[in-house]
């Protein structure tokens, strides 16, 4: 084995080891599933996340959609994320439905009463994608009623832009997101929104290390839905959801989130149950730096 | 599938680039030192004048220590003497600053230089962190010519 191979192998093993050794750092994760606040991933940290959505389907089979998310803090003003989506429709099939590449940029240096973040995402999905990570345009529950074999025939290449606005006041976070999505195969721009409010159960930290202290729990609510498209802006033929959200940030670096969601009109799925688990790896950027022979 | 592979490659390249670029920041430590500490001086007068509600509170020091280990030690070092990515918090420039100025830095971060915004921590927790940082005092070895340690 050559020296360069040996170095590459040892760097790779170091990276693998680091991935599975618990890191002590922990960040305060938000409780939202759909809404974004203005906080980005800490630079050099990688967060690995798994999320599930169980949804009921009018006139069809219920489904369980899931996605894996890799979120990396490239700098203090730029976070990049990669998603892999899939779903199981009961009495039908399980399939991979596509991927997304998301970037969030913080344009302002300091904190303000309202803090903007620019969000840019490219997604390549098929029509069977059911994770409902966002609701936009005239997305309605009946779109998902067909069998997977028919839904997966549609391919969507989409560019999604969002303006994320978020404020923190007396421990509360208030976030307002507006979405504009363009299917790159000559379809009109579609619009959507998400609103959220959340607060830790306790604002001051406990002087003892603890898993069940109030500061580790965040609770709130979010509401999201579509706003039509360029040819028909408004609430007609759109779906909307209201969902309480809760997160438990464990000192070990794990975060558990759960959210029961309720459709607000006949176009919506009646019930969505979401849950997610995430783990943050501190100093991932340095490990990648080691792979490239830097920092030795 | 092809688009998936291309996107993965682009993501990996960008992540690798940001990691390598991050390492370069350490080599410019002297230049960074001046500008990082000078951020404290940019705190507005109103922010500097704010009083720490947890001043001299022993529980706040304990809570702040735990918060420091969870959120700050990775960059500033376990003993706050500085690390690969961030300067010492036991330097004269930090320990001599008003609690309000340190709180202002925590709240706003130094985003362009890699320090994230910590307003995601509720205000009382940021003050607990300030209480802990101020309790550390100036490190005996600290001088105005402080430079971050090499890895």
Q: How would you describe the overall organization of this protein?
A:
The complex is a heterodimer of chains A (296) and B (151). By secondary structure, chain A is mainly beta. Chain A has a single domain (3-291), classed as monomeric porin ompg (Porin, Beta Barrel), CATH 2.40.160.40. Helices cover 10% and strands 48% of the residues of chain A. In chain A, strands 1-2-3-4-5-6-7-8-9-11-12-13 form a 12-stranded antiparallel β-barrel. In chain A, helix 1 runs antiparallel to helix 3. The two termini of chain A are 21 Å apart. Residues 6-25 of chain A have low confidence and may be disordered. Chain B has a single domain, classed as Cytochrome c-like domain (Cytochrome Bc1 Complex, Chain D, domain 2). Chain B contains 8 helices and no strands. Chain B has helices at residues 2-27, 29-41, 45-48, 58-71, 73-76, 92-95, 99-108, 123-136. Chain B is globular. The chains are: A mainly beta (296), B mainly alpha (151).
Q: Helix content range of the residues of chain B, please? A: 55-70%
Q: Termini distance of chain A?
A: 21 Å
Radius of gyration of chain B: 17 Å
Mean pLDDT value of chain B: 80
The CATH topology of chain B turns out to be: Cytochrome Bc1 Complex, Chain D, domain 2
Mean pLDDT of chain A: 90
General form of chain B: globular
The tally of domains of chain A stands at: 1
Q: Could you tell me the strand content of chain A as a percent range?
A: over 45%
- Please trace the helix and strand order of chain A, writing H or E for each element: HEEEEEHEEEEEEEEH
Number of structural domains of chain B: 1
Annotated CATH homologous superfamily of chain A: monomeric porin ompg
CATH top level class name of chain B:
Mainly Alpha
Low-pLDDT segments of chain A: 6-25
What is the fold named in CATH at topology level of chain A?
Porin
Q: Low-confidence parts of chain B lasting 5 or more residues at pLDDT below 50?
A: 18-29, 143-151
Strand content of chain B: under 5%
**CATH A-level architecture of chain B:** Orthogonal Bundle
The description of the largest β-sheet of chain B is: none
- State the CATH architecture of chain A: Beta Barrel
């Amino acid at each position: 084995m050559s020296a360069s191979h040996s170095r590459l192998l040892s760097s790779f093993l170091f990276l693998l080891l680091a991935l599975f050794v618990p890191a002590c750092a922990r960040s305060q994760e938000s409780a939202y599933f759909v809404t974004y606040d203005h906080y980005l991933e800490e630079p050099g940290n990688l967060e690995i996340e798994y999320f599930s959505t169980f949804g009921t389907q009018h006139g069809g089979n219920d489904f369980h959609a899931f996605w894996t998310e890799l979120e990396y803090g490239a700098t203090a003003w730029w976070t990049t994320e990669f998603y892999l989506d899939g779903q199981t429709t009961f009495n039908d099939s399980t399939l991979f439905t596509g991927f997304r590449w998301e970037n969030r940029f913080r344009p302002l240096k300091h904190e303000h009463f309202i803090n903007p973040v620019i969000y840019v995402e490219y997604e390549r999905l098929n029509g069977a994608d059911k994770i409902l990570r966002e609701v936009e345009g005239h997305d309605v529950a009946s779109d998902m009623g067909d069998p997977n074999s028919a839904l997966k025939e549609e391919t969507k290449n989409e560019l999604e832009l969002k303006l994320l606005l978020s404020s923190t006041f007396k421990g509360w976070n208030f976030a307002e997101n507006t979405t504009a999505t363009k299917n790159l195969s000559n379809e009109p721009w579609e619009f959507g929104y998400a609103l959220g409010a959340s607060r830790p159960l306790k604002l001051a930290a406990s002087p003892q290390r603890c898993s069940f202290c109030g500061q580790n729990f965040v609770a709130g609510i979010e509401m999201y839905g579509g706003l039509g498209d360029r040819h028909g802006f408004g609430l007609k033929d759109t779906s909307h959801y209201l969902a309480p959200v809760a997160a438990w940030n464990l000192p070990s670096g794990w975060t558990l989130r759960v959210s029961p969601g309720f459709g607000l009109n006949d176009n919506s799925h009646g019930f969505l149950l979401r849950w997610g688990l995430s783990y943050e790896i501190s100093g991932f950027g340095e490990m990648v730096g080691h792979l490239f022979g830097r920092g030795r | 599938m092809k688009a998936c592979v291309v996107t993965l490659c682009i993501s990996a390249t960008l992540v690798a680039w940001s990691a390598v670029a991050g390492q370069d920041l350490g080599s410019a430590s002297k230049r960074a030192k001046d500008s990082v500490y000078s951020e404290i001086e940019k705190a507005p007068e109103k922010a500097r004048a704010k009083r720490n509600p947890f001043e001299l509170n022993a529980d706040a020091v304990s809570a702040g220590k735990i918060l420091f280990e969870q959120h700050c030690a990775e960059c500033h070092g376990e003993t706050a003497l500085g690390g690969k990515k961030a300067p010492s918090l036991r330097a004269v420039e930090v320990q001599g600053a008003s609690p309000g100025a340190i709180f202002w830095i925590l709240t706003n971060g130094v985003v362009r230089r890699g320090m994230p915004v910590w307003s995601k921590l509720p205000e009382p927790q940021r003050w607990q962190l300030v209480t802990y940082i101020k309790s550390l005092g100036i490190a005996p070895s600290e001088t105005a010519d402080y430079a971050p340690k090499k890895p």
